[in-house]
Backbone:
């Protein structure tokens, strides 16, 4: 590595480790004092020159939820970088006769390196990745030299190398029976996909390292460190983010189920047992100072869910429905209604199972076959509320709760506040979960502030907020 332009002041290792832990805490990862002590003790026996061992040792002592591993790894790379500045180059990227970088030749070399199982292949690949970031990812910004992983990846396009990598892997094997079809076997394709993903991750990590050296660790951390899955905003989540969020359902459901059960047992007290109370009062001259209660027999409440499944809030509604169905055994009955501009009961679509594959298929069948969009195809909360009162009002009883899921953006239709009040009066509990930030309620076509006057409305922008609301509000 070439030395940095200005040497940074030396920081004692324990202070550096403490700063690293403080950064993890700032990102939402809970690290207690005992875990920090364990990490310090682990550092005493780990080889600090072996980053892989150091990474795994700190991960084992500092994080308890593997869903947080992606955030941990990113913060680790910023606080324990491979080095600073550009690597000392021992080779060059291939170039054309005009002196330009030959991208096709680079892609061929990468395919060969990724298929290579020799001991020095990793070192040669790391050297090449560094050259790619330095020469294909570098650009001049208004604030000086910078590096872009997107710029480098768009030229290399790792996902298009899978066939070449698989063919190279098959060509190096002993099985020649496939001839020209070498590399098409599933084992080669699967390994090639994994190595293509590793190449992408390596380019992103090298870009992050170079940017941290040029701009500073704190500045890069502002955009490079991802959100914890439970803190990802439902409305801005992409496909990969939603997949991360879905993985939080099972542990969150277990936690919520335990909380609901504890609340149920604590909140229910049996009726006073007059006979036992009078017998116990003999010691106080017949004055019933201490009441004796019968053993409580708490029943399970009913739950009715009405969810907006229009495109703007589909991710939030789908996640919440998954969570509700993971908790369905906590209720005597769960009925689900969906709408875009017209409401329809969709309970039957989800009763068969709630695992990830079945649930996704159920959502697709529901959206394509249920009677949920019969007008202009835009969210119409007023028409939904009016239709629910006319067709399904009897589904609400004083034994259960009503949950309405949606952003309350009514596209300037009549909000039908009277229909909402009638539903709230029929239910024992009624809550509205809104995935939008509260500061945006009532802006534009949002009728959230109007609806909030007739029903308790809560901001639920991520899984953490949603879990807290459900644990605190659902009836027991």
Residues:
């Amino acid at each position: 590595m070439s030395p940095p332009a200005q040497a940074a002041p030396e920081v004692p290792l324990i202070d550096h480790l403490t700063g690293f832990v403080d950064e993890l805490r700032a990102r939402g990862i809970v690290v207690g004092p005992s875990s920090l002590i364990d990490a310090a003790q682990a550092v005493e026996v780990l080889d600090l020159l072996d980053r892989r061992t150091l990474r795994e040792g700190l991960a084992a002592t500092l994080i308890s939820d593997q869903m947080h591993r992606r955030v941990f790894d990113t913060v680790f790379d910023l606080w324990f970088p491979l080095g600073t500045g550009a690597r000392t180059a021992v080779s060059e990227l291939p170039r054309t006769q005009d002196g330009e970088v030959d991208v096709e030749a680079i892609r061929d070399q990468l395919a060969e390196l990724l298929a290579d199982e020799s001991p020095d292949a990793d070192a040669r690949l790391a050297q090449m990745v560094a050259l790619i970031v330095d020469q294909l990812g570098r650009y001049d910004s208004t604030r000086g030299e910078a590096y872009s992983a997107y710029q480098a990846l768009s030229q290399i396009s790792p996902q298009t190398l899978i066939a070449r990598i698989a063919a190279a892997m098959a060509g190096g094997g002993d099985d020649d029976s496939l001839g020209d079809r070498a590399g098409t076997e599933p084992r080669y394709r699967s390994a090639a996909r994994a190595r293509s993903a590793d190449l992408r991750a390596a380019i992103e990590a090298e870009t992050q390292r170079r940017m941290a050296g040029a701009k500073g660790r704190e500045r890069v951390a502002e955009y490079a460190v991802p959100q914890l899955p439970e803190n990802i905003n439902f409305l801005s989540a992409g496909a990969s983010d939603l997949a991360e969020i879905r993985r939080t359902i099972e542990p969150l459901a277990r936690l919520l189920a335990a909380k609901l059960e504890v609340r149920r047992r604590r909140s229910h007290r049996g009726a006073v047992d007059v006979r036992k109370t009078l017998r116990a009062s003999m010691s106080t001259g017949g004055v019933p100072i201490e009441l004796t209660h019968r053993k409580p027999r708490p029943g399970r409440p009913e739950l009715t869910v009405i969810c907006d499944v229009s495109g703007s809030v589909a991710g939030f509604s789908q996640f919440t429905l998954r969570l509700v169905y993971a908790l369905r055994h906590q209720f005597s009955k769960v009925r689900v209604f969906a709408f875009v501009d017209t409401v329809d009961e969709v309970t039957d679509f989800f009763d068969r199972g709630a695992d990830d594959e079945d649930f996704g298929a159920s959502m697709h069948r529901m959206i394509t076959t249920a009677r949920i969009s019969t007008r202009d195809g835009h969210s119409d909360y007023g028409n939904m509320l009016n239709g629910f009162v006319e067709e399904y009002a009897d589904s609400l009883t004083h034994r259960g709760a009503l949950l309405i899921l949606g952003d309350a953006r009514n596209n300037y239709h009549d909000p039908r506040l009277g229909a909402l009040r009638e539903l709230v009066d029929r239910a024992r509990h009624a809550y509205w979960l809104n995935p939008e930030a509260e500061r945006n309620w009532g802006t534009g076509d949002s009728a959230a502030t109007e609806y909030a006057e007739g029903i308790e409305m809560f901001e639920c922008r991520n899984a953490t907020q949603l879990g807290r609301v459900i644990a605190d509000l659902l009836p027991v």
About this structure: The longest helix spans residues 186-215. The first strand starts at residue 138 and ends at 141. Strands lie at 138-141, 144-147, 302-308, 333-339, 343-345, 400-405, 429-434, 456-459. DSSP finds 19 helices and eight strands in the chain.
